[in-house]
Amino acid sequence: MYHNDKKYALTNCVLLDGSEHMEPQTGKAVCIGGEKINEIVDAQHIPAGYEAVDLGGKYVLPGLINMHVHLPASGKPKKKASDPKKLVKLITSCALTNRIGVNMCEGYAKTELLSGVTTIRTVGGVADYDTKIRDLAAAGKILAPRVLASNMAVSVPGGHMAGSVAVAAHNNAEALAQLRRAGEQEVDLVKLMITGGVLDATQKGTPGELKMKPEMVRAVCDEAHRLGYPVAAHTESPEGVKVALENGVDSIEHGAKMDEETIRLYKERGAFVCTTISPALPYALFDPAISGASEKDQYNGRIVFDGVVESARTALANGIPVGLGNDVGCPYVTQYDFWRELCYFHKYCGVSNQFALYTATLRNARLAGVGDVTGSIEAGKSADFIVTRKNPLDDLTALRQLELVVCRGRAVHKPAPKRNKTVDALLDPYLA
Questions:
Q1: Do 320 and 378 reside in the same domain of the chain?
Q2: What percent of the chain has pLDDT over 70?
Q3: Which residues of 271-309 are buried (b: 16+ CB within 10 A; e: fewer)?
Q4: 386 is in which domain, residue-wise?
Q5: 187 φ, ψ to 5°?
Q6: pLDDT band with cut points at 50, 70 and 90 for residue 1
Q7: CATH code (residue 181)
Q8: Mean pLDDT of the chain
């Protein structure tokens, strides 16, 4: 069991609290008791009963929150394309293979944690693996982040990820049946695959093709909201975004270029956009000889990349909330690389390092509905934090190498997730 009931105070550290306008704070002690931050006090006045832990001037900041995760994939690019439907069918075929599948996802969840991500929001997975891992982590039986779980998404025949991390619903009744199954599994949110993606497009210039009928979107959203679940939707085209917002979706995953009507719909709905720059970047910017992308895929990848970036920029300029995820599991998007998404957000969307860090911590927590639990370093919240040697406000790549990760009070010293050197070498030039 991974529990820590000790009381200790972090001293001789620089505090970055996760707030929107955070500035480095010195002379403070962060007092931890079990799974909670009990109080933050002047370092000269640590209450009795706490063991002082000298951090040697290192930086303490909230654990990162990854808002767009698919657990059943490593992100390692494959030389030969595999059929995810066949793999999922195989892995869910019996109790033994299901156990192997859950173990695999546990490993990927642990990798997220070792990279500084203390909360993940899953948006499409295999069977009920997401909720199983959520419950095991909450009980302290495995080392993993806090999980906000969707389990399998709802798609349509021939739709995005249908048959792998999404159920193909032929009609509204089948879509609602999947929603009921998700409810029985006690999910935290519901995911719809409203449009296709880069690799779904059959023609050049048509990524994000509308796949799900508006009436199905409406039926699922209405019932999900009646049951108390927020609805996230994969949408990668202007048309798809409008259909999603008009019919009740709460968050647009990825996004696309907006016009005035779309801006109005976001505000009327009170929806947010979850920006994901990482998955489109390789298709859009890599040499096709490296990515293996066809001319069509590269062209469509560029449309999606530009759409995601412009969507975030427009949202920020118009007061529409923006969350941050990296669509982990896509090629070249690994379970240890969420920190790159912050760098891309800064580079391509023009936000400050401060705002990128705030988005990946407190803003994401609030958008995910757990802002009262995590996302910032303050009294009463979960002991979810990371420690860096250098200041991420100066350079976000400070998040690449961590000194300490703590989730629910459980500490991992000198975390060292296994990295893919080839992937790192290909992606590193896009940090500058």
A1: no
A2: 98
A3: bbbbbbbbbbbbbbebeeeebbbeebbbbbbbbbbebbb
A4: 7-63+373-430
A5: -70, 165
A6: very low
A7: 3.20.20.140
A8: 95
Q: What is the mean pLDDT of residues 54-70?
A: 98
The model carries a pTM of 0.97
Domain count for the chain: 2
Specify whether 329 is located in the same domain as 403. Answer: no
Distance CA 398, CA 91 (A): 38
Together in a domain, 17 and 115: no
382 and 234 share a domain?
no
Residue 76 lies in a domain: yes
Tokens of residue 424, six digits:
């790192």
The residue among 317, 348, 367 that closes a domain is: 367
Q: Which of 22, 13, 26, 2 is nearest to 376 (CA)?
A: 22
Q: Are 235 and 101 in a shared domain?
A: yes
Looking at residue 43, its pLDDT comes to 95
Q: Is residue 270 part of a domain?
A: yes
Each residue's pLDDT tens digit, 87-108 = 888 889 999 999 999 999 999 9
Q: What is the pLDDT of residue 233?
A: 98
